[in-house]
Amino acid sequence: MEPDLREEFIQMITRYQGILHKVCLIYFHNETDRKDNFQEILYQLWKAYPDLQKKGSMGSWIYKIAINTSIVKIRKDSRYVHSPVFPEIPDSSDFLGQYAWNENVRLLISAIQSLNDMDKSLMFLYLEEKSYQEIADITGISVSNVGTKINRIKSQLKTTLKTLNHGE
């Protein structure tokens, strides 16, 4: 890769690293798995970066690569078994340590982590305040299907959060 492209890539990663860390948090429960996935996402972005120059929205491209890389890693990694438990609280050196780790945040993350891969992706993008059109472009489903699924997921999350909150 040319030096200019390397510098552009580094600037892109610096600008969008928050997205990458959030994706890792949604898909992986512990810090080690999150860090491994973050590195894998960086690798996939690095491999595909030269082709980005020919494509449209960089943000959508980054979301798509990050989400798809996470899903592929989960499916390939036989040692990763989903269990609906609270994620580990990141240490202060972790990017995610800047978030307020109160009980409500932990419950919401736990509830989102209990969703299937597509629903996690949809809810993550919704919480990132992406439009239904952007979500459809990233996930490859229709705009009307995005709306239907998000409403169903929100209802499911409300039920899950009530259960987690009351230990029912």
**How many domains?**
1
Terminus-to-terminus distance: 55 Å
Order of helices and strands: HHHHHHH
Q: Whole-number average pLDDT?
A: 82
Helix tally? 7
| Stretches with pLDDT under 50, minimum 5 residues | 82-98
In what range is the share of β-strand residues?
A: under 5%
The shape, in one word, is globular
**Rg over C-alpha atoms, rounded to the nearest angstrom:** 16 Å
- Structural class call reads mainly alpha
What does the main sheet amount to? none
The percentage helix is: over 70%
The number of E-state strands comes to 0
Entry keywords:
7 helices, mainly alpha, 168 residues, globular
Describe this structure in words.
The structure is a single chain. The protein has one domain (3-166). Helices cover 71% and strands 0% of the residues. It has seven helices and no strands. The chain has helices at 3-27, 31-52, 58-76, 103-113, 117-127, 132-139, 143-166. Helix 1 packs antiparallel against helix 2, helix 1 packs across helix 5 and helix 4 (103-113) crosses helix 7. It is globular and about 55 Å long. The relative contact order is 0.11.
Strand and helix map with partners:
Elements: H1 3-27, H2 31-52, H3 58-76, H4 103-113, H5 117-127, H6 132-139, H7 143-166
Helix pairs in contact: 1-2, 1-3, 1-5, 2-3, 3-6, 4-7, 5-7, 6-7
Quick overview of this protein structure:
The protein has seven helices and no strands. The protein is mostly helical and 168 residues long. It has one domain.
